[in-house]
Amino acid sequence: MWTFLHKLASPPHFYRLAEKIIPWFAVSGLVLIAYGTWGGLFNAPPDYQQGDAFRIIYVHVPAAYLSMMAYMTMAIAAGIGLIWRMKLAHAVAAATAPLGAWFTFLALMTGSIWGRPMWGTWWEWGDPRLTSELILLFLYIGYIALRNSIDDLAKADKASAVLAMVGAVNVPIIHYSVEWWSSLHQGPTLIRKGGPAIVGDMLWPLLAMIFGFTFVFGALVLSRVRAEVLFRERRARWVRELVSATGAPA
Amino acid sequence: MKPRQQRMLAVGLAAVGLLIATVLTMQAFEKNMMFYVEISEVAKGNAPEDRNFRVGGLVVEESVVREPGDLQVQFTLTDMEAELDVLFSGVLPDLFREGQGIIAHGRMGDNGKFVADKVLAKHDENYMPPEVAESLAKHAAAKAAAQAEAAAEAVKP
Asked: How many domains does chain A have?
């Protein structure tokens, strides 16, 4: 176990391992998304209240879930990097942030498009769910801006890790905002007492989309971490050997 | 940029971000805690007179009155304890219908009616096809009827 973890933390080993994993993640993700798209758009019946408009759920829910999952990944990786001084963990945190920011943006945008016809508003200032998700976007942007403003990589890693960990408070606030305060947003459909409140034909494509998005997210994170590792280790021997072996100009 | 200026920029950005976050959170608390008034409170006369607030409730069945050729609409909201007449002129959300939970934003008019400038619909966390919803409603009605019958039986001498 420990040798596995130590090996995983070594950049060249991770670089090669990620190369093998990425295609599997990408293909599984795309297959699941293909099924989810067909199931969600064609096979699932229209909703009793919202008709066909509910189908935006198949993008909105995976995006919203990933916006929070990506933040937890980032905060935990940043924490590991800070506590155990593991450079690879900092690389993971740095690579995750822009992806998380885009998923947050996607969740806000699809939510807004959904909210206009159903609730009657694009955006409600002061709504707890909407506001806490917007703060999540600001946290990502703040994290990225903080990293970019510090040239010394080690210092940037440390400072941004603190921000990432402090901001993690917001994630449970987003999740429970619909229960703690009066929000326009309805309560949770999937994870609730008494099981999911959605029929099977609607549920399976949604689960496929959630897992599909997650696999694609995993593939994207791993590719970004590989690039980040190459940059950080650009003066290390294994990178120079890799470059000369692949025939690119050293 | 010199490293020191960059650090200052970073600290400045972090401070601005924190400030925005705090303001938004405060706003969220304020709007939802302070400006949301229950219908039974309005009925008791505890509604603020000089500012906007929100009320939320169910649209009472067969209470929606539309002016022909106009966007003006009047309906009654209930929180199962008290009722409140609401006037609204504008486009109602798709989900607006009798029996639906909605939130109205506006202020009290002179005639004791609530004049809304915005009507928002809430939907629940259940997703199902119309047929399932219908049969659920039918079963619920049947069950309620059976219970009422049993209750009537029970009180018979």
From this structure: 1
On chain B, the residues whose CB falls within 8 A of the CB of A119 are: 93, 95, 120-123
Q: Which residues of A touch B36 (CB under 8 A)?
A: 182
A37 CB neighbour count, 10 Å cutoff = 16
Whether residue B118 sits in one domain with residue B76: yes
Q: Enumerate the H helices of A49-126 as residue ranges.
A: 57-84, 87-118
ipTM: 0.77
Q: What is the pLDDT along chain A (250 residues), one digit of tens a residue?
A: 677 777 778 888 999 999 999 999 999 999 999 999 999 999 998 888 888 889 999 999 999 999 999 999 999 999 888 888 888 999 999 999 999 999 999 999 999 999 988 888 898 877 888 988 999 999 999 999 999 999 999 999 999 998 998 888 889 888 888 877 777 788 888 888 778 888 888 999 999 999 999 999 999 999 999 999 999 998 888 888 888 887 655 4
Domain identity same for B117 and B147: yes
- Cα dihedral across residues A51, A53, A58, A64: positive or negative: negative
Residue A248 lies in a domain: no
Residue range of the domain that includes B11: 1-33
User: At A183, is the secondary structure helix, strand, or coil?
Assistant: coil
Same domain for B56 and B7: no
The C-alpha of B1 sits at a distance from chain A's nearest C-alpha, in angstroms, of 10
Q: Identify the domain containing residue A65 by its residue range.
A: 21-232
DSSP for A1-48 reads: -HHHHHHHHSHHHHHHHHHHHHHHHHHHHHHHHHHHHHIIIIISPPBT
B66: Cβ–Cβ under 8 A, 6 or more apart, which residues? B72, B73
> Do the Cβ atoms of A93 and A164 come closer than 8 Å?
yes
Q: Judge whether residue B124 has pLDDT over 60.
A: yes
Q: How far is B111 from chain A (nearest CA, A)?
A: 26
CA angle A33/A38/A40 to nearest 5° reads: 85
